[in-house]
Amino acid sequence: MADDKTKRGSPDSKRLNKGEPYEVAYARKKAKAGTAAKKAGTRRGSVRAPAAPVARKRAGPKPAVRGAPHPPTAEKTTENTAPRTMKAADAVDLLTDDHLQVSALFKQYDKLAKKKAPSEQRRALAATICGMLKTHMTIEEEIFYPAARKARIEAALLDEADIEHASAKELIAQIESGDPTGDHYDARVKVLGEYITHHVVEEHIEMFPKCRRAGMDLVALRARMQARKAELDSGETALAEEGVPMAMAASAESPGILSRISDSLFSAKNP
């Protein structure tokens, strides 16, 4: 009769080496199980060392990209009405960038006026604003507006823009010839900023979208406007280096009403 330890299902029946004593096989199996449990406990209790930080390359500055404007109903500003930036930079992008730059300068001037900054500091910033606006209006009047008229953009819209430019030019002349210590100097700069904001918002909301939909070659137009802008900027730089005040330069280019009347009277007396 077979031993009970060798019956089917007993631990002894599962031994691979039947010649090995049962007690030796049992002890080896128990020791193996204990070693496995110890390894598992070590794995559970161990703490992984923190991974070394991976050095990331800093991305360069991304170009400013404007999305679709969503102006609030309460107040429309230069910033929240700026048209979307196109993949191929066009004339609208060029003009809009100018609008944003001069808007930032007007805000800077407002801070100087509230702090009662020195007159020379306010005069210098006002001169920068006026110079930027004159260059901007010139490239619009000489290049952009005529191209918009050829593209059959509403004549009334362009006529209004011309009149708004004329009003702004009058204020610019007063600022350039004014005294920053006077009572109305800061007020003139503030009113000029309000004029420009109104004009810019109308361009952003009404004129520029129509120009883009009209099929105008705005990329080629941008190149012409950039070239003309560079000419105007270099001319102002040359005058500044020669020490000619901008107010005198402006009066030389566009004489006042008194000089025009005297010229007409003189020519009438001496045909």
Provide a descriptive summary of the structure in words.
- Helix 2 runs antiparallel to helix 5 (185-213).
- It contains eight helices and no strands.
- With 271 residues, the chain is an all-alpha fold.
- It has a domain at 91-251.
- The termini are far apart.
- Residues 244-271 have low confidence and may be disordered.
- Helices cover 66% and strands 0% of the residues.
- The chain has helices at residues 22-45, 91-115, 119-150, 155-177, 185-213, 218-242, 246-253, 257-269.
- The longest helix is centred in the middle third of the chain and has 32 residues, at 119-150.
Question: Helices, strands, pairings?
Answer:
Blueprint: H1 22-45, H2 91-115, H3 119-150, H4 155-177, H5 185-213, H6 218-242, H7 246-253, H8 257-269
